[in-house]
């Protein structure tokens, strides 16, 4: 990660935003390849004992044998495709970290969202490094401290940006993508992760 990029979190974790890691052209090309080349699905999740559909489309890709439990769903990884391998390789060069799986989220419009959560599944181990890449439209991303809920950090994740989260971030901070009232087109986010074992 570029030395000039500062930690955006005031305490207990680290989050670095590298805007424009991918050029506008590269971002537009990957957006199109991922919109059409990924088998997007809307999956159910269980919230307070009730089965509801997730307000977004998802896909899970990774090295074989790295099954992953996400919000109560066991996701078997689909093999990497060419675009994902290229993106992964660029992220690995930029961060110096290798990843073996990725969760893809497609927010189709302003009503799609992701609620408050931490990426703290036990398969990720203690203090996971998570590399989050965005393509398509800009969406608002919020961090909120887990115990001091009034402590927040707002970011806008633009096409071609990389948000790197590390250290104790997933222990002390939740994050979300909220619905918005103004219309917005599709956005794709890929979070590269390392599943242990
Ligand atoms: O879309 C985003 O920027 C966030 C995605 C996310 O938090 C996740 O996949 O766990
Ligand atoms: Mn997350």
What can you tell me about this protein's structure?
The chain is of the alpha+beta class and about 200 residues long. The protein has one domain: Sandwich (Jelly Rolls). The chain has helices spanning about 25-35, 80-95, 170; strands at about 15-20, 45, 50-55, 55-60, 70, 75, 100-105, 115, 130-135, 140-145, 150-155, 160-165, 175, 185-195. Strands 1-12-9-14-7-4 form a 6-stranded antiparallel sheet. Strand 5 (about 70) and strand 6 form a beta hairpin. 2-oxoglutaric acid binds near residues 105, 132, 175, 177 and 189.
CATH fold annotation: Jelly Rolls
What's the CATH class, please? Mainly Beta
Q: What's the average pLDDT? A: 95
Count of folded domains: 1
At the fourth CATH level, what is the homologous superfamily?
Answer: Alpha-ketoglutarate-dependent dioxygenase AlkB-like
* Number of continuous helical runs: 3
The ligands bound in this entry are: 2-oxoglutaric acid, manganese (II) ion
* CA-atom Rg in angstroms: 16 Å
Lay out the secondary structure.
Layout: E1 14-18, H1 24-37, E2 44-47, E3 50-53, E4 57-62, E5 68-70, E6 73-75, H2 82-95, E7 101-107, E8 114-117, E9 130-136, E10 139-145, E11 152-157, E12 162-166, H3 169-172, E13 173-177, E14 187-193
Antiparallel strand pairs: 1-12, 2-3, 4-7, 5-6, 7-14, 8-13, 9-12, 9-14, 10-11, 10-13
The structure holds 2-oxoglutaric acid and manganese (II) ion.
